[in-house]
Amino acid sequence: MSGAPGLVGPPDVVLGTAVADDVAGYQAFTRRAAELGYGRVWLTETYKLDPVTFAGWAATALPGHPLGLGVVPAPLRSGPQLAMIASTLAGLGVEDLEVLVGASSAAMTRGWHGRGVATMAAMEALVASARAAASGERTPGGFTNGLGPAPLRLGLAAFGPKMLRLAGRVADRVVLNMVAPAVVPSFLAEIAEGASAAGRPAPPVTVWAHVALDPSEQTVAAARRFVSGYIRVPGYDRAFAAQGFGAVVEAARAAASTREVRGLVPDELLVEVLGLGDLSTLRARLDAYREAGAHPALVPSVVADPGAVRTLAALAPEAGEGRGAAAS
């Protein structure tokens, strides 16, 4: 296993949409994660919290704590925007920022925002544009970042082989979502192939490690609803198939309704992909990600644990989960 950055230190934590219903709840979750010794706090962009605005609050509330923006849907941002975000947050006191972009889904980018769908070429162009804008120099398009060079580290969320290889070529980090530890090496191999083709070391890899501590019947039902919303989404469907659930994916594609899709999702998929289990099972899961060569970022279920209070405390570095004190 390589000694790539991200394999040591406490797990990161993901500020997912479900952890709170208002901004105060998100603030409490973020403070709790920092106090418990977790690493980078990833601020996602979906349908609740605006991650850039919230990062401005975190810069003053948690000075020096590592932050991550993303997954940011690529069609909703331009290279100059990402550079201005990075330089502004640096000015507000964020010392360690990473920005993660991904293709997202047509339902979000086109349906909600009236934007297009990100192609491979568009993703690569966005990375190049953001880096040019962050340099502080005048870009070919005429943009100059008025705050000067921006400390911008760009990661990619990836699933399919082509996107994984692109991430290997150009990303500062690669993030995987809803993948079991056993299949991580196959994803890392694709990333390494892309990096080798570009003559560079493979970037560090982080996995959104979904965990549901001591799941109740309600937790299992919620997990099944959650997965049923993703199993037919391009990219996610390939990831599920790669984990041995190709027959489930094919059946879901032919299903007439979301309710029918939910009925097709087996418990085995939920355990493998969403990490349902007791404390020892979840700790072993996080260790398995590290042993496979990826750094875990917790995505805790809050169905039976409002605010993830119990889950964060049980899996916190000070409770025995961390491997060193350095942030990822």
Explain what this protein looks like in three dimensions:
With 328 residues, this protein is α/β, with parallel strands linked by helices. The protein has two domains: 12-213 and 278-319, TIM Barrel, CATH 3.20.20.30; 215-271, no CATH class. It is built from 13 helices and nine strands. The chain has helices at residues 23-35, 51-61, 79-91, 106-112, 120-134, 161-170, 184-197, 217-228, 236-254, 258-264, 267-274, 279-292, 309-314, and strands at 12-15, 41-43, 67-73, 97-102, 154-157, 173-177, 205-213, 276-277, 295-300. It has an eight-stranded parallel barrel with strand order 1-2-3-4-5-6-7-9, surrounded by six helices. Helix 2 (51-61) links the parallel strand 2 (41-43) and strand 3.
Secondary structure: elements and pairs:
Elements: E1 12-15, H1 23-35, E2 41-43, H2 51-61, E3 67-73, H3 79-91, E4 97-102, H4 106-112, H5 120-134, E5 154-157, H6 161-170, E6 173-177, H7 184-197, E7 205-213, H8 217-228, H9 236-254, H10 258-264, H11 267-274, E8 276-277, H12 279-292, E9 295-300, H13 309-314
Parallel strand pairs: 1-2, 1-9, 2-3, 3-4, 4-5, 5-6, 6-7, 7-8, 7-9
Summarize this entry quickly.
The chain is of the alpha/beta class and 328 residues long. The chain contains 13 helices and 9 strands.
What name does the CATH topology of the largest domain carry? TIM Barrel
Q: What CATH architecture of the largest domain do you see?
A: Alpha-Beta Barrel
Globular, elongated, flat, extended or rod-shaped: what is the shape? globular
CATH top-level class of the largest domain: Alpha Beta
Q: What is the terminal-to-terminal distance?
A: 17 Å
> Major sheet: size, sense and barrel closure?
8 strands, parallel, barrel
Order of neighbouring strands in the sheet with most strands: 1-2-3-4-5-6-7-9
CATH superfamily of the largest domain: Luciferase-like domain
As an assembly, this protein is single chain
Low-confidence parts, pLDDT < 50 over ≥5 residues?
Answer: 1-6, 321-328
Name the helix and strand elements from N-terminus to C-terminus, one letter apiece: EHEHEHEHHEHEHEHHHHEHEH
- The domain count comes to 2
Counting DSSP E segments of at least 2 residues, the number of strands comes to 9
Query: What is the helix fraction of residues, given as a range?
Result: 40-55%
Separate helix tally: 13
Mean pLDDT: 91
